[in-house]
Structures
1.
Amino acid sequence: MTKLTPGDRVAVLLPLPLSGPLDYLAGDAPSLTPGTFVRVPLGNRTVTGVVWGPAADPQPNLKCRPIKESLPLPPVPDASRRFIDWVASYCLAAPGAVLKMAMSVPKALEPEKPPPPRLVAADPQPGGFALTKARSRVLECAWVPQTAADLARTAGVGASVIKGMVAAGALCEIEAGEIEAGPQPDPHHPGPVLSPEQQAAAQELRGQIGAGFAVTLLEGVTGSGKTEVYFEAIAEALAAGKQALVLLPEIALSAQWLERFERRFGVAPTVWHSDLSEGQRRRHWRAVARGHAKVVVGARSALFLPFPSLGLVVVDEEHDSSYKQEEGVCYHARDMAVVRGHLGGLPIVLASATPSLEMAANVETGRYRKLVLPSRHGGASLPEVTLVDLRKDPPPRQQWISPPLHKAVEECLAAGEQALLFLNRRGYAPLTLCRGCGFRLQCPQCTAWLVEHKAGGRLQCHHCGYYARKPEQCPNCQAEHSFTSCGPGVERVAEEAAMLFPDARIAIMASDLLPGPKAAAELVEKMARREIDLLIGTQIVAKGHHFPLLTLVGVIDGDLGLAGGDLRAAERTFQLLSQVSGRAGRAEHPGRVLLQTYQTEAKVMQALAKGDTEGFARAEADDRRVGGWPPFGRLAALIVSGEDSAMVEKAAQQLARIAPRDAAIELLGPAPAPLALLRGRHRRRLLLKAAKQTNLQAYIRHWLGSIDLPRQIRVQVDIDPYSFM
Ligand code: ADP
Ligand code: ZN
């Protein structure tokens, strides 16, 4: 790191969507190394930013304002700063917008209140000091330094007794210093005995710690022990004095994972997700920045924490689509984790039972290594998957559980085991329509039907949060009480299950019915303790839970994710349904899966029935290769949006018209985005499709740089888009 001398001009990046850093005079701030947090004037405000490097324009006669002060915090590490620049450039985002994600807890940057002083018995005791009963009780406790309040409490005396003793010199203050880091995860805490396959994989990963950049795909069926294996890599990083980061798709719901970590390492890791309180976020951010937090487990945004000594990143369930952020800065956390590893010279472990085609392709070309755990731990077998053809075995009218599934659940419950019914749709019914005129209740701000939620007693838009009561009267034909619910959500399946299995203890697991992480953890606990017989859930039940007595999984609508013609629809369906199926039979009792579908002959259903992950991936890759789709080609999406439909249309047309010609790049659109109206904004989509090696970012920068759009129009760029809504 180059030191900047006083009087120099420096570039300061501010957490604002500006095109780059701004120049300031370093003034007489003592040591402004790049990365230092500083307070600077901007207009008539004062803003906190980060020294990014020497001034862009070193001309000394150019006017610029001095930095007000530097903050006593560890500087943003070099690798983090290069990471921020890299993400901004790749995602075509303002560097300041990326920096903002790294300083997402403004309060963590404010000066800390010094901890209250701690008192300890003076040694020797002052002469002539009258020892009362209360005073001697205090002295008995005061060999451990503690605050005045704590000391009063432990000794059972009033605050005045303590005060008097301090005044007399019988108790003295000691320097509290920095708040200590607290107990740390212990890499030598005994873990489970690994099987020979697990041992071999763990050995490989351990060998990568401290040995530079490497990406390893850890592939293994659900229950094969991937978590135990990457715990070994974490242990090695800890032993080497490094920090480790684990990304999980639903960290707020991962109580079981946290418990396992604690069992392995003796203490809980530092968690990072949006459900933390402000105070927790502040403490955790500082603990990471100071290097006190050794293991962080978090959601995608944890990648932007300022780790000073990161030695390993694990991305669990790497295929999970929740790693893609689609608002603000559009980035894919798995891909950016690889970049972070490259910039920091450290290993990345990607774990999955159903690797994404992207990662599989990188293994194929030799860029990434692959380690395989071929079987379930402890001899548990993978569940047998049976397709239920809904054309041959339809459920009764207005019901969703087919006769074969009905029978299977009955048998399962009679055997004293647990069952899970999976439907990836929250609420009661996805569509409400008037029996009289066919009118459908739609969100006024989005291109979406309103979803009925009986539990909440209302109709709700799943895109913008709009909600309303069910109207008494059809707004179109004025018929009274004419609305009828169409199709199922988990609430409706639960209603049906209660009717079919009246003696079963039934629970629903869906994000909107769980007020927070604690409620989710309690429900998982109840299920693990067998206080629930039949669980009905959305995709949040699919993630990582281990229920030893769960032996039957019924998929209510296997086709749900296939509609819509999304590029990755089949791949995602395969991954999600494999993961759900993987909940069955994880212990001694073998599991089975009944998968209800209208498309028994579809490739994805056949592959699921045969458990043929590799075959499915190969066939899917062949299709994509022929079409030049990712991972064999590149995509970028531009969403043009605004409140005025005509203006949006015009801007989109204009963009398409001036798009530079390039033989390697194909422009598709503009077309109305599937969600043509979202939160009251009209949307048109342009899609760029290009050969793999094309520099799409340079193309888009050049393109957007040559047009001046009205202020009311927003163009959102999404490199490597995953959602086509
Ligand atoms: P995956 O992450 O591949 O789904 P897990 O690591 O969650 O697999 O392991 C599945 C279950 O098997 C967990 O309950 C785990 O504690 C247990 N397990 C895996 N490996 C071992 C082992 N070597 N010894 C004891 N238990 C193990
Ligand atoms: Zn809406």
2.
Amino acid sequence: MSSNSGDFLTDYQLEGEELKIFTYPAPVLKKKAVPVEKFDDELRSLIKNMLFTMYQAPGIGLAAPQVGKSLRLFVMDIDFDREEVTRADGEVDYRLTNFNPRVFINPVFKNKQGEILYEEGCLSVPGIYEEVKRAQNITVEYQDMYGHRKSLDADGLLSVCLQHENDHLDGIVFLERLSLLKRNFLTKKFMKAKKKVK
Ligand code: QAP
Ligand code: CO
């Protein structure tokens, strides 16, 4: 496993607590998050629970503000697979396999180049998807869960996802990256759907 988060996370599926995901327009999603300073067991427990919550959804990225913690940290996995399994009662179910959990703490972007259009979604705006324009290539400097400094060059979906999650740390939801017209339309659509399920 080419994971950057250490082996202790390989069993996150069995262990972990499902955290509440805050949905738009929760105030915590609009706040600028503060840097992580303590790389302790409490932080690693939060990371584990965030990964568990992300895989439960399932999602490919989850930032700390989305679970109500205003910290500069997010988790991501853009390459897990879905395996079809037949349950005892004959029903077909899905199980996630080949995990590649990633953790980014206090990320800073260095080079942004090119342009890419990618259809994004967000666990804090469920049911809404739209194309967003982002940088094609980026370099991100960050810390891992032990506080070690790392650097990563990214392009394509990895680059898009890093930028989407980093926006959450600055209080920005992907709807705010759209034209005013699309943003207003999709925000109304989301608020309407949200009212219905309440
Ligand atoms: C951000 O988003 C992302 O609406 C991560 O009903 C997405 O994991 C970056 C999700 C796409 C780049 C491209 C959304 C799950 C998951 C929903 C997610 C939903 C269930 C979104
Ligand atoms: Co999001």
3.
Amino acid sequence: MTFADLHLHTRFSDGTYEPAEVVWHARRHQLAALSLTDHDTIEGCAPTAAACASAGIEFIPGTELTAEQDGDEIHILGYCLDTRDPKLLVEIAKFQAVRQDRIREMVARINRLRVPLSVDAVFALANCRAPGRPHVARALVKAGLCRNLDEAFERFLRKDRPAWVPKFKMSAAVAIQLIHSAGGLAVLAHPGLNRTDAVIPAIVEAGLDGIECYHSKHGPSETTQYLEMAALHGLLITGGSDCHGSNKGRPLIGTVKLPYPFVEQLKAKAAERGAATCTPSTPIFS
Ligand code: AMP
Ligand code: FE
Ligand code: FE
Ligand code: ZN
């Protein structure tokens, strides 16, 4: 049996690994395929695809869009999308501009507390188009203004702390349409983490293609529950570790291994829709 990990982050959003490091770990865990699903960006896809090609690992282009349904935050994974699609690039650029404005606002609020963090220091450290709170936290530590990341979140960044700024979320229906218009498939990320099962029928109605049933933070009963839900609605089944690198203790890559037939099903559906980027191919490991 061969396996895949369809939920991975790099330093192009809030992960710590470079693409080559993710691919190195994927090889170590003998993964035949992987998808990069950085938050609100596709910036890391090209370098990760290149690293996968040298390592003999199949690369599935991906992203994880921050979305909202009936007031609840949900994450929608996009797979097999054309990362050069002009509409996708325009919409993602808008999303990223809002994330960058949010960083400026967080830093301004921190400065109002007479903590001299520079916004340029945060952007320099983030060095990506989709920066978030972890980059502000790391910059605070790097500048010697907080002892560690926990302190940064506790003093400033956690919800309802003085520098907390809500994050822009597109509606789930818009996120799904955007993924579809770029030739991709839309999958609900880690429903067990969000505990927002009540919104699932509405997003299925909006065109959801799959559910991430296997996830590092899903227990066996959650996995079973979402497998049943996927069967009930006729949705694809996906899974991944949601590894963010080494910033949250032990890296999670390798803890969720999705059997390759699920990847075949994903690619078959993408091909049915006419996606050019995810043509079925034979995995290297067998
Ligand atoms: P953002 O998308 O900018 O709101 O940032 C969310 C990211 O911040 C996620 O990757 C979380 O894991 C991380 N995060 C949230 N709370 C904490 C915390 N208390 N300590 C460390 N990281 C956190
Ligand atoms: Fe994240
Ligand atoms: Fe997520
Ligand atoms: Zn994720």
4.
Amino acid sequence: MPYDDSSPAPESRDAIDPDRPWYTRRSTLAVAVAVLAPTLLAGWVLTQVVTETGADAKRPAALSPLPASHTAAGDAKSSASPSPSPSSSPSPTASASPQAPAPAKGPLAGKTVVIDPGHNTGNFKHTDEIDRQVDIGTNRKECDTTGTTTNSGYMEAEFSMDVSRRLRAVLEERGVKVVLTHEAGTARPWGPCIDERARIGNEARADAVVSVHADGVSAGNRGYHVILPARVKAGAADTAAIVGPSRQLGERIGSNFSRTTGSAPANYLGSGTGLVVRDDLGGLNLSTRPKVFIECGNMRDGKDAAQLMSAEWRQKAAQGIADGIVGFLGG
Ligand code: ZN
């Protein structure tokens, strides 16, 4: 800091001052040390024997396994992250898996992934706020939507947040820096708006962005699909640079998701490819970083809903999405 440079601490200035009197009295001091040293040393040894014994008696408590492993995990985690980020703070997901993330190596070093949990469980109570229109380049659209639910009331926003947290944990294990566009709870009672969701990815200079959703169409329609950005250029929207890499990202996510979950590509759109191109989503139109949406299944279909409500299945979903992202990043 500048004030340190202009005003050195007294100790450091004294230490390099050749005019200090102690310099000339050095030989006297040395003699005194030589005379006193054996006495002091004997006393020190005696003290150490006593205190070491005392310390040993306390050691089992001080080195109990739980605090030791927590400390090691915390240290390894902070050294793996070059700068503090919201995602490095403790979270329910992080505390559930105390293993330290592997330090980022090779192609994953320095990579940032932004995960966008679709909707927000608070949106149902903030319809006025989320109905506000925002500019998505090609046209204007609602700030955000409530999302769908299963017939039993399990909310898409709950699902998307859960999968997003699991996905974050998997990616952080690989040493990737992860940013969520929002967190569950009171910190963000609604939204963010779709334009802000895109902006968060852009400003993070994310290497990949994925928005996590589940669909809400009539029963019998099943399976997952990945939504890719169309080529659009209007207002603030210009996707020319991301159409190609986003397709690569989406193809990798789709195939890995299918592998880990056993789900088939959607049977109601995408012609069985599990890939759909859209030009009406603000989150894609306004992105300047490779980005896709994934609709993990249909919440209104009983069989798909049973999967979406299974924590075990959601872990497989997160793993598949993560594998796709890591593959896209070259890891
Ligand atoms: Zn959705």
